[in-house]
Amino acid sequence: GLGYALASAALAAVFPVMNRRLVLSGGDPLTMVAWEMAGVLAVSLAVVISFGETASLFAWHRLDWLWLLVLALACTVFAHGFQIRLLKYLGAYTVNLAISFEPLYGILAAAWAFGEYKQLTPMFYVGLSAILLANVLHPLGVRMSRGRTVHPTADLQSSQEDNPVYPLWLSLSTARVSSDDLGAAPWNSRVPEVQQAWKDLTRPENLSGLKHWHGAPDQMNPVAREAARKALEACVARCSQLPHDDLSPDHP
After folding, report:
1. 3-state secondary structure 146-180
2. Per-residue pLDDT for 12 more than 60?
């Protein structure tokens, strides 16, 4: 029994990670929910049929169908779809931390609805405190790390505000912060908003502004220098793919 429980917990932890990867690669949350629910239905029916329990599928009494409908739609499909949509903006680590509250909700609900207080031992409160502490400390740590994160615009706000690419750098930094994507370099990001901001920044028409930006290394920190170099390289590469007649005077 313990082995099954550990395996189930491991799969439940991996599930948000896989869903986040699918969402960031362009997957539609509603489509993902539909296919995942269809897969669950197929596996569940196969298990029930293999154990010869088909008669129990429709052994409902009174309002059982209503409560099953509530559980299926509100507590499963809606909750799962909302979780997948959140994975577009929150990391899988953050979502897994929040999911750790689920057994606590279940124990407290059982204690309130059915008077089952057997699980409310001192160790339960120790575990509850640990989960609460982890969920409180994690966002605080993220905020502190954001405060220490150096953005490509940090050292250049006073000298480059007239540069036409300055608003694009700000948009890129905003996209990275809002999507909690500070751990990856913007040119390697899998977040659609960050990818689009990087694409807008490295358009061929921004070549002159990026050259000017890259030409101020003394005013940059190492993070800014690397980002400016990568942006200029990406812009030059995109310019080289344009037909010669389409090149503006700013292009090489």
Report:
1. HHHCCCCCCCCCCCCCCCCCHHHHHHHHHHHHHCC
2. yes
pTM of the model: 0.52
Closest to 80 in 3D by CA, of 48, 39, 136, 42: 39
Contact 155/199 with Cβ under 8 angstroms? no
The two three-digit tokens of residue 90, written as one number: 């929150």
Question: Does the CA dihedral 179-183-186-192 come out positive or negative?
Answer: negative
For residues 135-171, one letter each, b for 16 or more C-beta atoms within 10 angstroms of the residue's C-beta and e for the rest, the string is eeeeeeeeeeeeeeeebbbebbeeebeebebbebbbb
- pLDDT tens per residue across span 146-158: 554 444 444 444 4
pLDDT, one tens digit per residue, over 53-62 is 766 666 777 7
Q: Position of tokens 């207080």?
A: 117
Only one residue has tokens 């310019």, namely 239
Structure tokens at 208: 């002159």
Rounded Cα distance between 79 and 110, Å, is: 20
Helix (H, G, I), strand (E, B) or coil at 213: helix
